[in-house]
Amino acid sequence: MLFFLRYSRFIWLLVLLTFFLAGCAVDRAGISTTAPPREVYPQSVKQKGPPPWAPAHGRRARMYSYRYYPSSYVYFEASRGLYFYFSDGRWQSGISLPGGIHIDVGDFVSIELESERPYDHFVEHRQKYPPGKWKKKKNKSFKNK
After folding, report:
1. Alpha carbon distance 24, 21 (integer Å)
2. 90-122 pLDDT, tens digit each
3. I need a surface site. Which of 53, 86, 111, 136 has the fewest CB within 10 A?
């Protein structure tokens, strides 16, 4: 009995705390006190065009600019600094060309496509732009006599 009297305040506080914590954990009548997660678009990312759930009527696709080198069958995209070349039986990409592939920097054709993979149109480009015909003329500097 002496034990109960000495620690009665502590025991009552423990009982009340237990009921309080148990009541917080119970979901009453299916009502949730927490809001469901929602999709939040960061303010720093500004999209061009309609939102993802809306149809894009009349919106143009992104255009990619490439330099196609017909003599070596290589594509170069300057905005990303990527070369696309055929090696080991498949199309590959990289920031530099492998040792066995050389390009003539003056022999290229500028191409704009809606695709990130220019090699999908390679057969068409090979027929349309045969090697050797697309050499850019160098500017001649004239000396005053």
Report:
1. 5
2. 999 999 999 888 888 888 999 999 889 999 999
3. 53
